[in-house]
UniProtKB/TrEMBL annotation:
This is CBCO1 protein. The lineage of its organism: Eukaryota, Metazoa, Chordata, Craniata, Vertebrata. It comes from Thalassarche chlororhynchos (Atlantic yellow-nosed albatross). The gene is Cabcoco1. InterPro entries: CLAMP. It comes from the Eukaryota.
Length: 129
């Protein structure tokens, strides 16, 4: 279902599509294991997409993308609505868990994702096998 939603057409021959499908699937499964509500699950998947788009489309460095995560998470747990970010439906503990997950899944492997998105590769596909 996620493959259809992401509109991946070359999953069997595109390493990039396969890696992205794996990343989104792992994130979705993790969020389900955390018992996130539907709105939290949706927000978490939006956050995954946002951070990957920052890397792929905007060519953001690790430091800049971490700053963007900080802005998105700002104000969680605070009652002052001026500081509250878009992800204020997470509790403080959930926000910490999200940051930990992003650290081990994306930020720790940031150079690999940069290579995936920005290094030209010659793809020679002989067959689907």
């Amino acid at each position: 279902k996620l493959e259809e939603f992401l509109n991946f057409k070359q999953l069997k021959t595109s390493l990039k599509e396969a890696i992205l499908l794996d990343y989104y699937t792992a994130g979705f499964c993790w969020a389900k294991e955390m018992n996130f509500s539907l709105i939290q699950l949706s927000g978490f998947m939006d956050l995954l997409n946002f951070l990957l788009e920052n890397l792929s489309d905007k060519h953001m460095t690790l430091g800049d993308n971490l700053k963007e995560l900080g802005k998105a998470m700002a104000g969680i747990g605070e009652t002052n609505s001026e500081r509250s970010g878009d992800l204020n439906f997470f509790s403080i503990e959930q926000a910490k868990a999200v940051i930990d997950y992003l650290n081990i899944s994306l930020f720790k492997h940031y150079k690999l994702y940069e290579y995936l998105f920005h290094s030209p590769r010659e793809e020679l596909v002989i067959s689907n096998e």
